[in-house]
Every structure is written in structure tokens, then in C-alpha cells.
Amino acid sequence: MAEQPHTGITRREMIGIGGVGALAGLAVAGLPLTAAAAPASNHVAAWGPVFQDLGPTIPNLTYVNVAGTAFWPLSNPSDRYVEPDSRLVGIGAGGLLVAPLDLPAGSTIQQISFGYRVSASADATVRIMEQPLDAGQDPSDAPTPVAVAVGPGADAVVSSVTVNLATPAVIKPNHVYTVELLTVVGMTLRGVSVGYMAPTAGFVPFAGATPRVLDTREGAGTKVAADQEITVDLGNAGVRGALVNVTVTETEGLGFAAMFDASIAYPGNSSVNWAAPGATVANGVVSAVAADGTVKIRVGGLATAKAHVIVDRLGWFI
Length: 318
Fold this sequence. Notes:
The protein has strands spanning about 15, 60-65, 70-75, 80, 90, 95-100, 110-115, 125-130, 145-150, 160-170, 175-185, 190-195, 205, 210-215, 225, 230-235, 240-250, 255-260, 270-275, 280-290, 295-300, 305-315. By secondary structure, the chain is an all-beta fold.
């Protein structure tokens, strides 16, 4: 029996962004690098009540498991079914099953394992697909495969395969990733495990021609007022953090300006403070950055606090 389908599913709604969102406690030394540690076991466990050994892990890799139930057809979602005992997922008429894959930018995928069931006459092929993150791109454009794992037919028994990639696949900033399985009638998937090497924290100095991304004195010349927030695009989606210089000038009242990840609510921080009207104060700031490369600037303090704000980029944490 088919499950209650999702509605309006597109590949764009299933994407995983190559990069991370809010980073709590970002500091110059010791950026958080992975969402989870590698499993203590030297084997990858499968999904659902029926245990299936998916093969040995590689030391020092981090593993992310994508359960079969996370996969949905790109077309005809009502044709998807889940076997209640094994949690194997399939499509009644066959077709493409897709799930999002969200790994830190700079990671290298080195191993793919998956559990499946298929007749002896058909192989099961799992592919990791890459697509640039571009708001103007047609969602129907076909992404590019960057890693492939093939499981042989196995007389309709539950099987597993582990593939160590000869050439690791690199997760790029500003790209989106999905895992897909092209099924035939009767082919079902339990889940996919991806083993990857997390990126090493590093600092890359800004090397562009124009480090300045905000100067509120330009254009309309409107100061940022107390409790007002503005979004600033730092121009490098997928980085983990940014080092910038924040300057306030022509200040009014007593107050502060705070920079923070644009994808979260104001966390209560302060990046540069002023204690008198008419001041010009600058400070070097390390800030977390939203996945799309944006931050927010917020002015706080007394109700009369206002200031022009200037932001210059110094470098990136990747």
C-alpha cells in the first residue's frame, strides 16, 4: 500500500548545501568541523529493525547515514511504498529515488555503503549528485554525478555493498548535493551510508579588489538605528566563518553594533561599542556566516543610538 505522498516535491526541495549553517561559539582557534563523530564500531550498521552489516569503516572518516525512508521519488510520490518489517523503500513502477545530502564544504567522500534488495538480473546503482547553488537555475536541470557505487543483483535477498572510491569526491562551497537510486520494479533500498573526511580548519585571506561590502554613508546615507537589523552579503557562500573589520562612525547616543549569522535570531552579542556621540570606532570581528554567505548587522543600546556602519572583509574560515 502506498504511503500518504509528499506534495510538490522538486529536486530543489531535497538538496543538501555544501557548507554549514549557524556555528555556535565560532572562534579564531578551533572551529567546529563535523556534526557527528565517526562510529565506535568498525562496521557500518544499517537501518530499521532488520540488522544488515554494510561493511567495514575506514579509520578517521565521519559517517552520515541516510535512511531509506528519507528517499522520495521526484515524480509520482504516491507510488512510493515502505515495507513495514524491513523498512525497505521502493517505487511501485520503478523510477528515481532521491534524498538530500548535507556535508561540510571541503569534505572528501571516500566510501559509500548501501543496503538493498533486487533480483539477480539487475544491478543497484547509487550516485551522489552535484549541482551549483544558483537562484536563477532551472530546478529541472540535471545535476552531475561525482561518486558512484554499484551493487550486483542478488536473487531478491537483502544485500549490501561497500565501495571505497578510487578518487574521493570533494564537497564544494556554493553547491548542493543529493543521493539517488534509479530503481526498477521490485528494487528496494534500506539506506545509504557516506564516509567522508571532514575538512581541516583553515584561514584564507581576502584577495579580491574590493574588501568593502557595506558603507551606509553611501547612497541614501541612512544611519542604522537602535534595534534595526540589515543583511550584508559577504560574497562567499559555504565558508564557515569570516574575519572582518567593523567600523561605526558619526555615532549618536550610546550604543553598539553586532554582527552575526544571518540565518539565526540575534544572539545577544556586541561587536563594536561607542560611549559618546560623534565617535568613530573600529574592531576586528570573527563571525559565523549563513550558508549563503550572509551576516546581519544590528545596532543596540539606548533608544537614541544610531551610527553609520562600515564592513571590510579580511578573510575566511573554511
